[in-house]
Amino acid sequence: MSAAPEYPPVFCMGNPLLDLQVRDGEKLLEKYGLKSNDAILAEEKHMPIYDELVKDYEVTYVAGGAAQNAARAAAYVLPPKHVVYVGAVGDDQLADQLRAANDKEGVESAYQVHSGEKTGACAVVITGHDRSLCTTLAAAEKFEQSHLQKPEIKAYLDNAKFFYIGGFFLTHGIESALDVAKVASGKGKVVALNLSAPFIPQFFKVQLEQLLPYVDILIGNESEAEAYAAGQGMADSSIAQIASAIANLPKSNASRPRLVVITQGSESTLVASSSASLSKCNIHPEEPNPKTYPVPKLTDEQIVDTNGAGDAFAGGFLAAHALGKTLNECVEVGHKMGQMCVGQVGPAFKFPKISVL
Fold first, then answer.
1. Pair 14, 139: CB distance under 8 Å
2. Which is it for strands 190-194 and 217-221: parallel, antiparallel or unpaired?
3. What does the buried/exposed string (b/e) look like for 272-299 if buried means 16 or more CB atoms within 10 Å of the residue's CB?
4. What pTM was computed for the model?
5. Which of 253, 325, 332, 345 has its CA 20 to 30 A from that of 32?
6. DSSP bridge partners of 294
7. Membrane spanning segments where (predicted)?
8. What is the pLDDT tens value at each position of the chain, 357 positions in all?
9. Are 221 and 264 in contact (CB under 8 A)?
């Protein structure tokens, strides 16, 4: 890749959100019926939590939205001007904060702006090493397919080589996601999708099944994989069996093997590939498929905040893949970015940059 391309080769799409993050939130979990290490869309009963956070807690404001976190992680690894991010925001100060964070971390913001709407927000409730996410999408769920047809956005789409779609986007934007993925897959470009949360394969199963044929790299965690399996009648299957089953689903671009990457927190990361042409994934044919990668251990003192760690892994993995690194190197970079993320407050990364390659 050149150091300063005219258009970014990595195109990310999702729901831009500003995270409102608080610690020691056990009472909030109980009051609002939230679970640790879970992610949900806010219902009416959850809406008071945002004012309560500001009123009664010490809030840390962090640029968020899962796909936007991944975009910033990818930008950290890649040379300048290599990542663009698309999503919908309001015309407000929250959107300005998101743009500033993207500018600082090397991501081009290509937002669709909805005048008079509020930018989406996420209540992030930290308890110990766990986090619970409760999101109000606001302007983010008003993303319109027509935004992709604007000349400046179409130029990004035409020139990108790697595409990343956040699973949360499927709750409202399946038509736009399909528009992007079908065209990219048809041109032999790489399409990555993150499952994002267990409720995506549970309650947006139809949308997920529509998109999967065009997906070259699927990323998720063990809870999301188990939720997918439950919906497919595979509830008793192991993570390895689930990953292999997804890897071998029908695929639009059959010339490129599908990779399924399942993170398992601090335990290990598992990668499965479709059975054909393992060498194309830079996996030695004699290595196991699926292959398990241990995660370097951190002490409790090194873990500050787990919010966004999975997104950081995904961004690091995708960036290394875009640089033509081997699968082993992609996983290693993903692990390094995830661990960098958990060592700081919020999905943020160290500056000045340190090498992760």
1. no
2. parallel
3. bbbeeebeebebeeeeebbbebebeeee
4. 0.91
5. 345
6. 268
7. none
8. 545 788 999 999 999 999 899 989 999 999 999 999 899 999 999 999 999 998 999 998 888 899 999 999 999 999 999 999 999 999 998 899 899 989 999 999 999 999 999 999 999 999 988 889 999 999 999 999 999 999 999 999 999 999 999 999 999 999 999 999 999 999 999 999 999 999 999 999 999 999 999 999 999 999 999 999 999 999 899 999 999 999 999 999 988 999 999 999 889 999 999 865 445 555 555 678 899 999 999 888 888 777 789 999 999 999 999 999 999 999 999 999 999 998 887 777 877 787 888
9. yes
| Residues shown for the chain | 357
How far is the C-alpha of 220 from the C-alpha of 60, rounded, in Å?
A: 26
Token pair belonging to 139: 């302007």
The one catalytic residue among 19, 92, 216, 311: 311
